[in-house]
Amino acid sequence: MFTEKDSAQIAAHGLTPEAVERQIENFRRGFPFLKVVRAASPGDGVATLDPARADAAAARYERAAEGLSVVKFVPASGAATRMFKELFEFVNEGKRGKGIDTLLEHIGEFAFWPELQALLPEGADDRAIVAAIVGDGLCYGRKPKGLVTFHAYPDGARKAVEEHLVEGAGYAATKGTVRIHFTVSPEHREGFERLLAERIPRYEERFGVRYDISFSVQKPATDTIAVDPDNEPFRQDDGSLLFRPAGHGALIENLNEIDADIVFVKNIDNVTTDALRGDTVRCKKVLAGLLLELQERAFAFLRALDGGETDLAPIAAFVERELCVKLPAAYDAALLRAVLDRPIRVCGMVRNEGEPGGGPFWVANPDGTESLQIAESSQIAREDMPLMKGATHFNPVDLVCGVRRADGGKFDLRDYVDPDTGFISSKSACGRPLRAQELPGLWNGAMAKWNTVFVDVPVSTFSPVKVVQDLLRPQHR
Asked: Angle 194-148-177 (CA atoms, 0-180°, nearest 5)?
């Protein structure tokens, strides 16, 4: 199937011909749907905490934090193209809808308006104004969301990436240091580094902390081959193979290289202003405190099993009630140990208010257990879609991850990925159609074999910016 030149190209990506052949086979056979049992809900997979327990969890984390290694992990490589899609259509095709009317009517209310105004020629018309946002001018159509100005303050506007510095100081500071890791695109790394070098000193002075910022890019070895509609390798005009980035699921490799006790995971565009940040900071501490409690008990039960404990009932009760893993009737010590010896993530879930995206579900596993997973609509068979439509909660990507084993060593997170939960989509290149393959999503299939606990959190902790007009919402004013 592959020529000598192909083999050299494959090797340059850090892949092997066998790995690429497996990717092609995925196109041919497709990915199976998840065996969803039901949507998780309050009292059945989504924990609702009373104020006393929430306070105790937050206090537990605050007491322990100084002795922990903590990292805030922010996927920030996504371009802002979709955020400005409607603006591109107006500039390039003259299509003007309600969104453009809203944008122009409120243009002076956006935090980026002073920057934009300084770049506009006198008498600029509507099209010129919009063009200056996405094209030459602010160049937002070519920048990642992290470098877009989100919020205005009396002492100056802030980019999205800056809000993560402020938020990190609220819950991720240990021993006076806030460690934040951003995954970025290679072409934008310099822009992030330049901005942060300029802005970090003011936040260090304001919060009395030191920032330890690191970056990584998606590894070429996680790229996937594209195929034509007949599932044969797609060849570019020069005859070379086409490899594509495999989506955010590839970032499990980046997360796996983080050396920390606790890792907070949150998307780059899900930030709010200082006035509304209190709920977010508190909830992060609550989730982290719950994680520490679960870890402590899981580790104690693992040591008991290793010491020959024969009374399995208390361990099974913990696994089912606290780790939310439903056991088969014929469980044994080996199965309990396998369940306990996994990475743990505690995930905030917000009430479903119609936002697009995944949600919390109970899923049947090959080992006879049922466990909690975050599922996207593309992972669910048509006959099971009514389950998704009835879901009470939505995934805001608000995770706190425990990645250490009971002995203090680190889990190899690649061992807990479900390789059968990828995605296939239709794209185009060189003027021809192609099929593209994404790896299991970072908080979907890439964490499918983790122990997962869902917790109801206030909707005030979820303020994403999917389109530019979202910046007019109260959470961003």
From this structure: 50
Rounded CA-CA distance 437/445 in Å is 14
Instruction: Please give the structure tokens belonging to residue 363.
Output: 């899923």
Pairing of strands 423-429, 359-364: unpaired
Q: How confident is the model at residue 352 (pLDDT cuts 50, 70, 90)?
A: confident
CA distance 145 to 131: 17
Phi, psi torsion values for 138, nearest 5 degrees:
-75, -25
State the CB neighbour count (10 A cutoff) for residue 242.
Answer: 20
Q: What confidence tier does 357 reach under pLDDT thresholds 50, 70, 90? A: low
Listed in sequence order, the DSSP H helices in 354-394 are 385-389
8 A C-beta contact, residue 199 and residue 207: no
Q: Which two tokens stand for residue 444?
A: 């979907």
Give pLDDT, residue 382: 86
Q: What is the Cβ-side half-sphere exposure of residue 276, based on CA atoms within 13 angstroms? A: 17
Long-range contacts of the stretch 425-428 (C-beta < 8 A, 24+)? 427/226, 427/244
